[in-house]
Amino acid sequence: MLQRKTAFGYAVILALVASLNYLPVPGIVDAEGRTFGIFALDIYDDALHLVSALWALGAAVLSLRASRMFLILFGALYLADGVLGCFAGSGFLDLGIFTWGWLDLPVTLKILSSLPHVLLGGLALVIGLKR
Questions:
Q1: Could you give phi then psi for residue 20, rounded to 5 degrees?
Q2: Which residues pair with 39 in a beta bridge?
Q3: What is the residue-averaged pLDDT of the chain?
Q4: What is the tens place of the pLDDT at every residue in 18-61?
Q5: DSSP summary character for residue 21
């Protein structure tokens, strides 16, 4: 049951993340187009988050097994993407590593911008693997 609730929670969180660039709330997107002044989310990121939200919702509605599979696969992919981002400054899920390559950014910025994927991916993986 924990996995189904978690998958549903991920659906809500990821849908909110996908909508951040489109919410008329001051302070969310700065003048340079960065969310919270850190994340440069573009249409590819928004699409990735929306598809992930729909995947999470479908899994949560379908079954415990589907929810576990979502959490394990999503967790592994997002965790790997976040770890790559900590080093390269861009990840593979939004094709950034192929588009922009290895970015010359401060280490702190690389880590801060990759932290959501590391945390969300790691937590999903741990909960998905729980029996």
A1: -55, -40
A2: 35
A3: 87
A4: 887 777 666 666 666 566 655 666 778 888 899 999 999 999 99
A5: G
Residue 3 predicted with pLDDT over 70: yes
Q: Indicate the pTM of the whole model.
A: 0.84
**Torsional sign, CA 77, 20, 39, 27:** negative
Q: Where are the domains of the chain?
A: 2-129
- Look at 128 and 47; give whichever has higher pLDDT: 128
Per the CB < 8 A criterion, the answer to whether 82 and 121 are in contact is yes
Beta bridge mates, 35: 29, 39
DSSP 34-76: -BTTTB---HHHHHHHHHHHHHHHHHHHH-HHHHHHHHHHHHH
CA 48 to chain centre: 8
How big is the chain by its Cα radius of gyration, in Å?
15
Instruction: With beta carbons less than 8 A apart as the criterion, state whether 56 and 70 touch.
Output: yes
